[in-house]
Design goal:
Largest sheet: 12 strands, mixed
Number of helices: 5
Strand content: 35-45%
Structural class: mainly beta
Strand order of the largest sheet: 16-15-17-19-21-23-26-29-32-35-38-41
Number of strands: 44
Radius of gyration: 26 Å
Mean pLDDT: 83
Shape: globular
Low-confidence stretches: 1-48, 230-237
């Protein structure tokens, strides 16, 4: 009886928790919408009408509001921040759904590279640049107020440093809207603490706008309007496993792992259909062979196999673990991988094509300290699906998979720690098949960009943005080392040094095809081919590329210090 009460209480708590929608919009280098649906183990709750929209106007929009999207640079990308520098944007926040909502507006630091000040101390611009949100459109003069730099900063008052993150909470009812002016400035009294030392790289910061929204206590149930009063507080750090609620990932692991260990074993132990007790337990813990984690706040992995509760094999005999899904329940959903050497482990499959390779999906997750996408033993005759959607990678991501992967990375953001080379590097040594799709992603502050080297794989690299002010002189933003085919279209490259494209001499697949079209390129040089097995120009189809202050006749070769004539003639 007590167990039933507990189960009922947990199911009810899960349903309440699932109603919370946290919408994060990162405008500038990042702009993402998180899911507005949530599911428990036994039902589905649709909250599709929690919807917030953002429009903006600044000195570039001729006084008109324009809809903001993930590629909208509301701040000057070329700004040199110094005492007295001011940026502003007028924002219109609108409740486009039919649920009342509460929100916080803040500055998103998409990427920051620190430096050393003249006193030899650490220097981060986010500690010296301030922001404030002012009511109304402050670009419109009023009685006693003239719109100019000094008056705007005076109206902002003390403001808050960027590292503060958010303003105070506000709310909007259905169809409600609000106009505010966001001001960002470096005070004129900032001392040499914000002045970087001669001979070191200058500090940089990439800024965007962030709006976090969730339900507001306005709509009523049968009792009052307080059913979601503490929803976002309760969900600050918590976890749900297939609808069962726990305070953290660690607590969930400690509750379920002993059951998996005792009943099934943590290796490759198997049971048969005749063992009805084990079949029933498996179906209870892993409905339809799936584990769904819904996490809130920052959660730390302490065991590489934590996501499968310590189980190392996907095959259980009469049952198979087919899928692991990890979903961010709020905008702060973070997996800290610093305790597992920057990665996690997936259950293996060496039982052939009769057993499915495990599928893994991450949605709306920030990865802290990530180093690699895990490899596992997988049956090569079938694909192994990996999906990362609306995720943030704070680190570099390396993947080595000598099996057929179907990897999709969509609408994600990669932020570089200092002196990080590749944002994404994928390799295999064989010509095994596979497909990699990277679409709509932002890569910020890496010295090299991306590198693809899987001889039998089809690569699709579309609608991405690579930005860096720390690029290496003799490398490329997009490195196409080895593959079956490359589709590189609709991308934006904005780097301060080196080449836009790099074709590496490790290429082995002479039958490769390259489609390079409609890219917007701003790099010192177009690039270089070190390939000796074939002429890449004969394998390239290219059109519609736009070059901005890019020398299309020269390149920087590996370890070179002076530009030379390029051997890439087919990219147009």
């Amino acid at each position: 009886m007590n167990n039933n009460k507990k189960a009922t209480k947990r199911a009810l708590l899960t349903s309440v928790m699932a109603l919370v929608m946290c919408v994060v919009m990162l405008v500038g280098t990042t702009f993402a919408w998180f899911t507005d649906t949530a599911s428990t183990g036994v039902n589905k709750i649709q909250a599709g009408n929690l919807d917030i929209e953002l429009a903006y106007k600044n000195s570039t929009t001729s006084g008109e509001f324009k809809k903001a999207d993930k590629n909208t640079p509301v701040f000057d990308n070329n700004a040199l921040w110094e005492p007295g520098h001011v940026e502003y944007v007028v924002l219109k926040i609108r409740n486009a759904g039919n649920l009342a909502l509460k929100y916080k507006l803040g500055i998103n630091i998409a990427n920051e590279v620190g430096s050393t000040n003249v006193y030899g101390n650490e220097l981060k611009l986010s500690n010296y640049i301030k922001f404030a949100v002012l009511e109304g459109d402050k670009t419109v003069p009023t009685a006693g107020y003239e719109f100019n730099r000094d008056n705007l900063v005076a109206a902002a008052g003390e403001g808050a440093v960027l590292s503060t993150g958010y303003t105070a909470e506000d709310n909007l009812l259905k169809d409600g809207s609000k106009i505010v002016t966001l001001v960002v400035w470096m005070p004129t009294d900032v001392s040499n603490k914000a002045n970087h030392k001669t001979g070191v790289d200058a500090p940089t910061i990439d800024l965007g706008i962030k709006v976090d929204a969730t339900q507001y206590t306005y709509e009523k149930d049968s009792f009052d309007n307080q059913y979601d009063a503490k929803a976002d507080v309760e969900l600050a750090t918590s976890t749900a496993i297939n609808g069962q609620s726990y305070a953290s990932v660690q607590e969930a692991y400690e509750a379920v792992q002993p059951q998996v260990s005792t009943v099934f074993g943590l290796g490759q132990e198997a049971f048969s259909d005749s063992d009805t007790d084990k079949c029933a337990k498996f179906d209870e813990l892993f409905p339809n062979g799936k584990i769904t984690w819904t996490i809130y706040g920052e959660q730390k992995l302490t065991d590489p196999y934590m996501l499968s509760f310590g189980r190392k094999a996907s095959y259980f005999g009469a049952r198979t673990l087919k899928e692991i899904e990890v979903v961010g329940g709020n905008s702060q959903a973070t997996l800290d991988l610093t305790g597992t050497d920057g990665t996690f482990a997936l259950p293996y499959n060496w039982w052939g094509s009769t057993v499915d390779n495990i599928k893994v999906t991450f949605k709306g997750i920030t990865f802290k300290g990530i180093k690699s996408i895990p490899g596992t033993w997988a049956t090569p005759e079938q694909e192994t699906p990996y999906t990362f959607e609306n995720c943030t990678f704070n680190g570099n991501v390396y993947g080595y998979h000598d099996y057929n992967i179907n990897l999709t990375i969509k609408n994600c953001t990669f932020n570089a720690p200092a002196n990080t080379k590749y944002a994404l590097m994928l390799q295999s040594t064989t010509d095994i098949t596979g497909k990699v799709t990277v679409d709509g992603c932002n890569f910020n502050g890496y010295t090299r960009g991306v590198n693809f080297q899987r001889p039998g794989t089809d690569f699709v690299f579309t609608n991405n943005t690579i930005r860096s002010t720390v690029s290496e002189l003799d490398r490329g933003a997009i490195q196409l080392t080895d593959g079956k085919s490359f589709m590189v279209t609709g991308n934006t490259v904005d780097v301060n040094a080196g080449n836009a494209f790099w074709f590496h001499d490790a290429a082995t697949n002479a039958g490769v095809t390259y489609t390079i079209s409609n890219n917007d390129i701003k790099a010192p040089y177009i690039g270089y081919s070190g390939v000796t097995k074939f002429d890449v120009n004969t394998r390239i189809t290219s059109s519609g590329n736009k070059f901005n202050s890019t020398d299309t006749t020269r390149c920087m070769k590996k370890e070179a210090t002076v530009a030379a004539a390029t051997n890439l003639t087919a990219i147009r």
